[in-house]
Write the structure tokens for this entry.
Amino acid sequence: MEAEKNILQEITPLEAHDFMYVADRHKVEYDYPLHRHDLFELNFVEHGAGCERIVGDSVEVLDEYDLALITSPNLEHQWAQGECHSADIHEITIQFTLDFQHSKLFDTTPLRYIKQMFVRAQRGLAFPMPAIMTVYPRLIRLSQISEGFYSFMELLNILYELSKFDDARELSSSAFAQVKPNMENKRVTRVKDYISAHYIEEIRLEQMSQLVNMSPTAFSRFFKLRTGKTLAEYIVDIRLGHATRQLVDTNEPVSQICFDCGFNTLSNFNRLFRKRKGCSPTEFREKYAKTKVIV
């Protein structure tokens, strides 16, 4: 687990009485290493085509605009230079803290959709272009507000508008991000809990349908409707999430990680990994290692 020490734990500028930090920057390159921090982060990028966004085990190349939200203190992330050649990368980074897990305020009608968005953003959330364009003027305005109360209200407006977009994409796999199922149908949670505990073993459709007292056919429809994935797809995602975490945090051979995470053959593991991540397990490990620094 030596590699775990190589991820920078960012010391944020907020004091105990502070709520939010906003940085509006124009730059020609990204040079900040892979890091994590205790604060939530909403990061906007303009003119960043070709840059890479790394959130957990998600690595994506950006288009001209990008907006992502991260609400987990354990989720490492980085915006890297990649193949971007822009001479004016515009970035607005908003770091803030909100106790949505324990505050009853976030269970009220006006804020419950923001809470649901925060729960999803524990894996990182990337917003679609319509969402970005909706909040773009507010993001620009937020960076120019000097009075704390009004900047707080502007951030709430931004978060509320973003919470309306159900098509925001979760980035990191739940296993890699170490996020447990939350706010879901009890049957789905029961199945997910079982898979999380037994992903190394063979898991059959009939077995899961019996677990929740449903027929296999009915369970298949039910699970796909609730998760957007078939049972087989979900199991593969969980296994790959654990595999990518081991690739990052350990020096175990790829073949050992393959079998430790429930895959039957190395060839199947390599095929599925490349299909989902766009590279081989070895390439992923090498690419991820290059983003780390020793602190």
